[in-house]
TrEMBL record:
The gene is purN. It catalyses: N(1)-(5-phospho-beta-D-ribosyl)glycinamide + (6R)-10-formyltetrahydrofolate = N(2)-formyl-N(1)-(5-phospho-beta-D-ribosyl)glycinamide + (6S)-5,6,7,8-tetrahydrofolate + H(+). The lineage of its organism: Bacteria, Pseudomonadati, Pseudomonadota, Gammaproteobacteria, Chromatiales. Pathway: Purine metabolism; IMP biosynthesis via de novo pathway; N(2)-formyl-N(1)-(5-phospho-D-ribosyl)glycinamide from N(1)-(5-phospho-D-ribosyl)glycinamide (10-formyl THF route): step 1/1. GO terms for cellular component: cytosol. Its EC number is 2.1.2.2. Residues 3-181 form the Formyl transferase N-terminal domain. It is an enzyme of class 2 (transferase). One of its GO terms (biological process) is 'de novo' IMP biosynthetic process. This is Phosphoribosylglycinamide formyltransferase. It comes from the Bacteria. Catalyzes the transfer of a formyl group from 10-formyltetrahydrofolate to 5-phospho-ribosyl-glycinamide (GAR), producing 5-phospho-ribosyl-N-formylglycinamide (FGAR) and tetrahydrofolate.
Length: 203
């Protein structure tokens, strides 16, 4: 499956896809990694793996619509069957999301529908929940509200700080995100009628 990955930062999730492709565990071909930030470390990871690493800075555009149009044009040059958001820290316009409907996924560091948006680990600790985690979901126009594909739970420890909690959540991200990508690549998971279907059954 041809895949394009969008990042803004470290790219540790991206690395799991690179490794999965290399080992043959993931039946994907990462066609390009695109970042809105030139200094994103994930670009280095891509280059090291021989994957085209592209930068499209939002600072070069007047508005979101213009940026998203240019981004879609860049992406579509690689003809991806799946577009993966992996720490891409920008909100995408409705038109962009509609263009990739059903082939656009994201990972969010909370047990959705809890803690949509930013600073999820801080907010989880403040709220006193005992279980936190991460979610992979299809992207729809409403932020962090798309149909879920897979989630992993992470118990909160009394001594947790946002940093220690984030670290343990990331271990789970690195497990469930490649899993979701594999299911998509194998055609086991899809989005239909606004829901996630797995092995022919609605989740
Ligand atoms: C992850 O925590 C992800 O949940 C969030 O951004 C972070 C990206 O980390 N959306 P990395 O760039 O994959 O290391």
């Amino acid at each position: 499956l041809p895949v394009v990955v969008l990042i803004s930062g470290s790219g540790s999730n991206l690395q799991t896809f690179i490794d999965g492709q290399a080992s043959g565990e993931l039946p994907i071909e990462i066609k390009a990694v695109i970042s809105n930030k030139a200094d994103a470390f994930g670009l280095e990871r891509a280059r090291k793996a021989g994957i085209p690493a592209r930068v499209l800075s939002h600072r070069d555009f007047e508005d979101r619509a213009g940026y998203d149009r240019a981004l879609a044009e860049l992406i579509d040059g690689y003809a991806p069957g799946l577009l993966v958001l992996a720490g891409f820290m920008r909100i995408l316009s409705d038109a962009f999301v509609a263009h990739y409907e059903g082939r656009l996924i994201n990972i969010h560091p909370s047990l959705l529908p809890d803690f949509r948006g930013l600073h999820t680990h801080e907010r989880a600790l403040e709220s006193g929940v005992q279980v936190h985690g991460c979610s992979v979901h299809f992207v729809i126009p409403e932020l962090d509200a798309g149909p879920l594909i897979v989630q992993a739970e992470v118990p909160v420890q009394p001594e947790d700080t946002p940093e220690t909690l984030a670290k343990r959540v990331q271990v789970q991200e690195h497990r469930i995100y490649p899993l979701a990508v594999r299911w998509l690549a194998e055609g086991r998971v899809c989005m239909r009628d606004g829901r996630t279907w797995m092995d022919g059954q609605p989740l």
